[in-house]
Amino acid sequence: MSECIFCKIVNKEVPSNIVYEDDLVVAFRDINPQAPVHILIVPKEHIPTLLDVTEENKHLISRAYMVAKEIAKKEGIDEKGYRIVTNCGKDGGQTVYHLHFHLLGGRFMTWPPG
Ligand code: DGP
């Protein structure tokens, strides 16, 4: 996916502030943070949306959530709490079509989202 910005970040063709990487996922700071801690956890494999998750790649979701938990501890937001968000499609507010999980914390968050 040569035009995908997150593929370019995963492949280090575009710079980003990477906070974690393993064989399956990369995590980096969001360019436009919506909270004191705003990190994106992204599977290395190009999966456009949640709708494209299959039996073959569903393990990437649990990896992303486990990584989010460890990053939350490292960033010191585990005790007060945090939010993980995945926007799916136009009405969900998705703007980058490479599956990602927003890890947000460091402030109180209201509900419901706007
Ligand atoms: P979403 O709207 O859920 O698709 O979120 C996309 C997020 O990606 C948004 O919060 C901004 C972030 N983003 C977009 N382009 C870049 C980039 O080039 N670098 C970084 N670090 N974040 C980006």
Describe this structure in words.
Helix content is 24%, strand content 22%. It has 114 residues and is of the alpha+beta class. The chain has a single domain, classed as HIT family, subunit A (2-Layer Sandwich). A 5-stranded antiparallel beta sheet has the order 1-2-3-5-4, covered by helices on one side. The longest helix is centred in the middle third of the chain and has 17 residues, at 59-75. It is globular and about 35 Å long. The model has no long low-confidence stretch (mean pLDDT 97). The structure holds 2'-deoxyguanosine-5'-monophosphate (DGP). 2'-deoxyguanosine-5'-monophosphate binds at residues 5, 16, 28-32, 40, 87, 93-96.
Task: Describe the protein's topology.
Layout: H1 5-10, E1 18-21, E2 25-29, E3 37-43, H2 59-75, E4 82-85, H3 89-92, E5 101-105
Antiparallel strand pairs: 1-2, 2-3, 3-5, 4-5
Bound molecules: 2'-deoxyguanosine-5'-monophosphate.
% residues in beta strands: 15-25%
Specify the helix fraction band: 10-25%
Trace the largest sheet across and list its strands: 1-2-3-5-4
CATH class: Alpha Beta
Low-confidence stretches: none
Number of alpha- plus pi-helical segments: 3
Strand count, sense and barrel status of the largest sheet are: 5 strands, antiparallel
What is the β-strand count? 5
Any ligands, ions or cofactors bound here, and which?
A: 2'-deoxyguanosine-5'-monophosphate
Shape: globular
CATH topology (level 3) name:
HIT family, subunit A
Provide the residue-averaged pLDDT. Answer: 97
